[in-house]
Design goal:
disordered N terminus
Length: 330
């Protein structure tokens, strides 16, 4: 067997999408049951991190808080339909996409914000468990998700969201951080009676710590996720500060009005990034981070996950013995 035949055989063995005959199926050909095959993403499915990312993320947290409170206080069945149905529809669109698409991605984040708020508030209102208990509980949940993600993939970098499994870990972490942030924000503002605006100032200061530490050399992935978690209580505190009554230390605009204004600003910003495409990740950057566990800029191409090393070694064609160079006798 020559080198090309060996390589082809190994590809057939290791590629579950390859048929017994050795031919790769047409992506449009339905599988058994009439469903088309699920294809892996073509590119990273999350946006590049910049100022616009953090602005839109903060707006989604505020809208998620205000919209969830408005629907929950108006008509609970509506809140359930929008929260559960909206998140199901958003994930259906997002997971079927093969690359980053700004409206789809940010709509999913918005629905996760609404649903995550409902989960945290529902546990508190439905069971009476205080935020001082649910906050550390959700912190443990998020920690377990990160541990499982890193143990499975060897990285928590959002630049590596190029497979369905990594995307599942990513969205699980996002949902967990929203629930955690909701509980933490209400813990400080309501249970500890700090107030919404002081809570917003508190979380702004907390968020600045990893941001500054990143400039001083903190691991970029750790800095990102620390900031990401804090955006939830920060944005929610601002939203509550505008929407809640004066007696609750708010400005009294109402959850409905704050939701409408937030959704309008959200739609404009998402339309802007969708048109300019300025938040699409550079494929080379995503590839560099793909196998780098907690990478630093100087070592992006030096860290490769052991599973990937083994897979690459197995797929490499072996040179026949007859073609191996012979060492000249001394």
């Amino acid at each position: 067997m020559n080198g090309s035949c060996a390589l082809r055989s190994l590809q057939v063995m290791h590629d579950p999408a390859t048929s017994v005959s050795g031919r790769s199926p047409d992506p449009s050909t339905p599988r058994r049951g009439g469903k088309p095959p699920k294809l892996e993403p073509l590119a990273a499915k999350v946006p590049a991190i910049g100022a616009m990312f953090w602005i839109i993320k903060l707006i989604t947290t505020g809208v998620g808080e205000a919209a969830s409170d408005f629907m929950g206080n108006t008509f609970i069945p509506l809140a359930v339909v929008v929260g559960v149905g909206g998140m199901w529809l958003a994930f259906r669109w997002q997971l079927r996409a093969r690359e980053y698409h700004a409206p789809t991605y940010w709509f999913t984040v918005m629905m996760v914000a609404v649903f995550g708020t409902m989960v945290a508030d529902g546990i508190k209102d439905g069971t009476g468990i205080s935020y001082s208990i649910t906050t550390p509980f959700f912190a443990v949940v998020v920690g377990v998700i990160f541990w499982r993600w890193y143990r499975s993939e060897g990285t928590l970098s959002i630049h590596s969201i190029t497979t369905r499994r990594r995307e599942a870990f990513y969205w699980s972490a996002v949902l967990g951080t929203f629930a955690l942030g909701t509980a933490a924000g209400d813990l400080t503002a309501i249970q500890l009676n700090i107030g919404f605006w002081p809570s917003a100032a508190l979380f702004a200061g907390v968020m600045a710590v990893p941001a500054i530490a990143w400039k001083l050399g903190l691991n970029p992935i750790a800095a990102f996720w620390l900031c990401y978690v804090v955006t939830r209580p920060l944005g929610a505190s601002f939203a509550d500060g505008f929407s809640k009554t004066h007696a609750e230390s708010g400005l009294g605009l109402g959850d409905g009005l704050v939701s409408v204004i937030g959704i309008a600003v959200f739609a404009v910003l998402v339309a802007y990034v969708a048109r300019t495409k300025g938040d699409i990740q550079d494929p080379a950057e995503a590839h560099a981070y793909d196998h780098a566990p907690f990478p630093h800029a100087d070592h992006l191409h030096e860290q490769v996950h052991p599973e990937e090393q083994a897979r690459a070694a197995a797929a490499a064609p072996r040179q026949p013995l007859a073609e191996q160079p012979q060492t000249a006798p001394r």
